[in-house]
């Protein structure tokens, strides 16, 4: 299974970052310095993560991770990266739900020290289902696990999502409601439309994405239920597992107040994205893992809420993912790593499955 070179994620100098981080730490904890600074292989493209040890006689934490807002010179994936929003969300989720969110330690909103806002949090040990090569492909710990072990991981993950939706007090999530008029779902979708408009500003538009937005309107759910706090990037690749038990739930940048099914659709489709990709390369993948019907059924058992309009929400997940992938592709174009094809829809790796969802044939 061949994969293209990993797109550039930063233009920053790691040694310069280490020097500036140590200088900043001294202002928060005099005499402290960062040692063993490293960048994980799985570093994302919407932000950057640094791992380091805190060298101090009485450190509040020894092993730390730093989440740094995207490099503004690196053709950012999102137009805004609100570190305080993510910091506050993680703190509140840990406080109100008991979900294993890393302890957040310091927030720095001034871009001066490291070139962008950031926060420092506890670093958790464990293992994460890989994206590259995807966990659905042979040769990684999750693929090599037994069916029972994967089933246990799946159930533990769904329990995390159910607990978040059921236990987090909505009054503490009002600041996460997308701006605008209408229901939380309408606001959420309109925010995605605005994001798409930003992605294609000065670039070729995607006819497929625009058809998908039209199809959403045709499938719009009559009953959206009571909104809850959504994790936003609800997938197993954003969890550190101790064995097969969640040890740390990460990446809260897309958290929002929305229907429960927004998270469920994302969980279902992001697995299908990797599964479909693996099958396209002639491998069986993990066809019995994270199946849609089982996720819906188990979630209903855990919460008493029967998921509704899931064709809408899985399409919405595939559409949102397509907009992100289009931005990533245009970022590669920006850095001279790729060229725009005659059909810009070909830049979307899952264009076939998205087209099938628009046509209503994907789940049949």
UniProtKB/TrEMBL annotation:
InterPro entries: ACAD10_11_N, AGP_Transferase, Aminoglycoside_PTrfase, Kinase-like_dom_sf. Gene3D superfamilies: 3.90.1200.10, Phosphorylase Kinase, domain 1. Pfam families: APH. It comes from the Bacteria. Residues 83-276 form the Aminoglycoside phosphotransferase domain. SUPFAM superfamilies: Protein kinase-like (PK-like). PANTHER family: AMINOGLYCOSIDE PHOSPHOTRANSFERASE DOMAIN-CONTAINING PROTEIN-RELATED, AMINOGLYCOSIDE PHOSPHOTRANSFERASE-RELATED-RELATED. This is Phosphotransferase family protein. It comes from Streptomyces luteolus. The lineage of its organism: Bacteria, Bacillati, Actinomycetota, Actinomycetes, Kitasatosporales.
């Amino acid at each position: 299974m061949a994969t293209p070179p990993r797109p550039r994620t930063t233009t920053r100098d790691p040694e310069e970052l280490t020097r500036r981080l140590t200088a900043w730490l001294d202002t928060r904890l005099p005499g402290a310095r960062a040692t063993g600074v490293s960048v994980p292989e799985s570093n994302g493209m919407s932000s950057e993560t640094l791992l380091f040890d805190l060298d101090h006689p009485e450190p509040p934490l020894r092993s730390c991770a730093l989440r740094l807002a995207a490099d503004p010179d690196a053709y950012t994936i999102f137009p805004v990266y609100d570190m305080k929003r993510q910091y506050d969300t993680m703190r509140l989720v840990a406080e109100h739900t008991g979900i294993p969110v890393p302890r957040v330690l310091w927030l720095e909103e001034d871009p001066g020290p490291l070139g962008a806002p950031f926060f420092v949090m506890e670093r958790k040990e464990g293992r994460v289902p890989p994206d590259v090569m995807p966990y659905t492909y042979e040769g990684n710990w999750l693929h090599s696990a037994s069916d029972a072990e994967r089933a246990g991981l799946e159930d533990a993950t769904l329990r995390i999502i159910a607990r978040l939706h059921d236990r987090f007090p909505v009054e503490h999530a009002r600041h996460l409601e997308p701006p605008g008029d209408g229901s939380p779902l309408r606001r959420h979708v309109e925010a995605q439309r605005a994001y798409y408009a930003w992605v294609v500003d000065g670039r070729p538009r995607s006819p497929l994405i625009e058809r998908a937005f039209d199809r959403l309107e045709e499938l719009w759910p009559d009953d959206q239920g009571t909104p809850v706090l959504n994790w936003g990037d609800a997938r197993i690749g954003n969890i550190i597992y101790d064995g097969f038990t969640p040890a740390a739930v990460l990446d809260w940048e897309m958290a929002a107040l929305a229907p429960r099914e927004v998270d469920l659709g994302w969980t279902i489709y992001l697995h299908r994205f990797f599964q479909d990709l693996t099958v396209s390369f002639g491998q069986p993948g993990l066809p019995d893992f994270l199946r849609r019907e089982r996720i819906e059924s188990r979630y209903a058992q855990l919460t008493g809420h029967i998921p509704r309009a899931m064709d809408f929400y899985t399409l919405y997940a595939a559409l949102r993912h397509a907009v992100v992938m289009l931005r990533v592709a245009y970022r590669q174009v920006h850095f001279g790593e790729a060229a725009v094809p005659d059909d810009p829809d070909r830049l979307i790796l899952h264009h076939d499955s998205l087209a099938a969802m628009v046509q209503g044939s994907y789940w049949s």
